[in-house]
């Protein structure tokens, strides 16, 4: 369920790995790619949600720091390694290039966002549809664009569900305010596990996700109860 509030350990368990250190993880799962993002002030990369509320702009990653003589922020973000293999940037870019050339469907990406230390949000699934490789502060930087989608898991893996209503992404700053306001617990029962950020009034019915007034924390049980009542 999108916007589930989870711990770092729960995130790793969901992807069946011991640790998740890299932000870009091409085909970490046989069916999809995983990204870790953050819009926190001290985040190492610049990630953002575009004004449409459905698209993530995700910055590519720097070259690894292999010595004190190299400043990763002063050199181009790499597409290939010194040995000629594609970096994570290169794998993402190649997937977009093949999609635009009608050689494949868009890569499906599962996104997790760091809200606070130890507090993450599972943002759902996205289609990797475009990228730019642009000059920023005298170096080349990748900017990837991911458009929200809905998916169904089945015996053959996963498939896009184009009939299900998409919902706008709740901005990180709104989540931080709501988390502190609701004291990290369900506003109905006070539960502190299986939590979700919830639109009080759904976007499809005129609700908004850009202010804290229409967002609250619900546990899974009350979130499902609310969904059952929406007509």
How would you describe what is shown here?
The protein is an alpha+beta fold. The chain has two domains: 4-167, PUA domain-like; 170-231, no CATH class. It has helices at 8-14, 88-100, 172-181, 220-229; strands at residues 4-6, 24-29, 32-38, 48-49, 55-59, 107-116, 119-136, 139-149, 151-154, 157-160, 195-199, 215-219. The strands form two sheets. Strands 1, 2, 3, 4, 5, 6, 7, 8, 11 and 12 form a ten-stranded mixed sheet that branches. Strands 9-10 form a two-stranded antiparallel sheet. Strand 9 and strand 10 (157-160) form a beta hairpin. The longest helix has 13 residues, at 88-100. The two termini are 19 Å apart.
Distance between the termini: 19 Å
Count structural domains: 2
Spans of 5+ residues with little confidence (pLDDT < 50)?
none
Mean pLDDT: 87
State the helicity in percent bands: 10-25%
CATH fold label of the largest domain: PUA domain-like
CATH level 1 name of the largest domain: Mainly Beta
Number of strands: 12
CATH architecture of the largest domain: Roll
Helices, by number, come to 4
The geometry reads as globular
Structural class: alpha+beta
């Amino acid at each position: 369920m999108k916007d589930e509030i989870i711990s770092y350990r729960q995130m790793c368990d969901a992807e069946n790995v011991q640790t998740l250190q890299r932000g870009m993880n091409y085909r970490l799962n046989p069916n999809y790619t995983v990204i870790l993002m953050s819009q926190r002030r001290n985040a190492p990369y610049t990630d953002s949600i575009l004004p449409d509320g459905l698209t993530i702009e995700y910055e590519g990653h720097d070259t690894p720091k292999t010595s004190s003589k190299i400043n990763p922020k002063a050199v181009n973000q790499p597409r290939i390694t010194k040995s000629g293999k594609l970096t994570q940037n290169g794998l993402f870019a190649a997937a977009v290039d093949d999609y635009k050339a009608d050689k494949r469907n868009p890569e499906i990406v599962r996104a997790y966002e760091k809200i606070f230390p130890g507090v993450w949000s599972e943002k759902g699934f996205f289609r990797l549809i475009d990228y730019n490789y642009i000059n920023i502060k005298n170096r080349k930087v990748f900017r990837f664009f991911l458009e929200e989608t809905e998916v169904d898991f089945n015996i053959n893996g996963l498939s896009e569900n184009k009939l299900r209503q998409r919902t706008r992404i709740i901005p990180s700053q709104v989540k931080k305010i709501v988390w502190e306001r609701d004291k990290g617990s369900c506003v109905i029962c006070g539960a502190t596990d299986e939590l979700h950020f919830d639109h009080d009034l759904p976007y499809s019915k005129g609700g908004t996700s850009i202010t804290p007034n229409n967002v609250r924390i619900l546990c899974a049980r009350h979130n499902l109860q609310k969904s059952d009542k929406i007509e």
